[in-house]
Automatic annotation (TrEMBL):
The lineage of its organism: Bacteria, Pseudomonadati, Pseudomonadota, Alphaproteobacteria, Sphingomonadales. InterPro entries: Phytyl_CoA_dOase-like. This is Phytanoyl-CoA dioxygenase family protein. Keywords: Dioxygenase, Oxidoreductase. Signal peptide: none annotated. GO terms for molecular function: dioxygenase activity. Its cofactor is Fe(2+).
Length: 323
């Protein structure tokens, strides 16, 4: 799509930076962020920090029914740092905070975490549609290797430069699908909003996959060692490669951050509102706390996942019974 008749790309960094910004981040990383939307910072986390993190997660898994597979690996756990604050120790590392402060143009706030024992095998996706940030450059994912990642364990992949592609909003998607457009324009008449949101989400994914195919885009899997930190732009397409050897673990943690004054909107808000309309909605707001100097959103729940099914759990109840 060109910028005249189709979706418009978003700015990838604050306009005033012009690719320069502060001196705490190397020019190499800044250039890679602009061009590829993805950077890897090696050796950020030490062995003792990794061991401490893995010990907490392993102990928590013993109290959770996370339905381990035949190889003994549990599924991902979301927001476990709400129960165990020490799981934020890695997220507050200066190398991460310095980079995100440059990328956002302000200090970052932690709002999510995911603990992994095995590869996700996720198809390419873009984080921004699940929690839309305004401005679009003010959110990022941070992936930390908690062991050396074997190429057969289902490592991370990304599509370099995809954060600069024309970006579909829901109004762009439904404009190409008259059957969806009528219901999207009058959501109050729809029997199930959840079904409508799901349909638009599937149509959005189809549009992206078509664009990836038309561009003959490459999927890149970097070599990642224990303690390496990978950071990707909110608009960058990424996922997990197939687990060639499912007996291999892929212990890692993903953190999601947004800029201190940025606004976050839900998946439903993104899918039911157009590019400009969403800015007039009430963003997600939660109480905030501070851990090791890092501001974070406080949520009253965490989540376990099994075979694609999410189970939301009360932090207070879990602490009362297990911590």
């Amino acid at each position: 799509m060109d910028n005249h008749g189709g979706p418009k790309p978003h700015k990838v960094v604050p306009e005033q930076y012009c690719g320069i910004g502060n001196n705490l981040v190397s020019m190499h990383l800044k250039k890679q962020w602009h061009e590829e939307g993805f950077v890897c910072i090696p050796g950020v986390v030490g062995r003792s920090e990794i061991d401490a993190h893995n010990e907490i997660v392993s102990a928590a898994r013993l109290t959770l029914d996370d339905r381990r597979d035949v190889h003994g690996f549990g599924d991902r756990i979301g927001q476990l740092h709400q129960v165990y604050p020490d799981l934020m120790n890695i997220s507050a590392k200066s190398e991460i905070i310095d980079f995100l402060s440059w990328a956002f143009g302000e200090g970052p706030v932690l709002f999510g975490s995911l603990q992994f024992e095995k590869g996700s095998e996720q198809s390419p996706h873009i984080d921004a549609i699940f929690f839309w940030p305004e401005p679009a450059y003010s959110m990022a994912g941070v992936w930390v290797a908690l062991e050396d990642i074997d190429p057969d364990a289902g490592p991370l992949f990304y599509i370099p430069g995809s954060h600069t592609w024309p970006f579909y909003h829901s109004d762009d998607v439904v404009a190409r699908r008259p059957d969806l457009k009528e219901r999207w324009k009058r959501p109050e008449s729809v029997e199930s909003l959840d079904d409508l949101v799901s349909e638009i989400g599937n149509a959005w994914t189809e549009e992206f996959i078509s664009m990836e195919r038309d561009r003959a885009a490459q999927r890149i899997s970097p070599e990642i060692k224990a303690g390496d930190v990978v950071i990707w732009h909110s608009l960058l397409a990424h996922g997990g490669t197939p687990r060639v050897n499912p007996a291999l673990s892929r212990r890692s943690v993903v953190y999601h951050y947004f800029g201190r004054t940025a606004r976050l909107y839900t998946f439903s808000q993104f899918m039911l509102n157009g590019r400009e309309d969403i800015k007039n909605l009430q963003p997600t707001e939660m109480p905030r706390g501070v851990h090791n100097g890092l501001e974070f959103m406080r949520f009253p729940h965490f989540a376990t996942y099994s075979e694609g099914v999410e189970r939301v759990r009360s932090v207070e109840e879990f602490k009362r019974n297990n911590v």
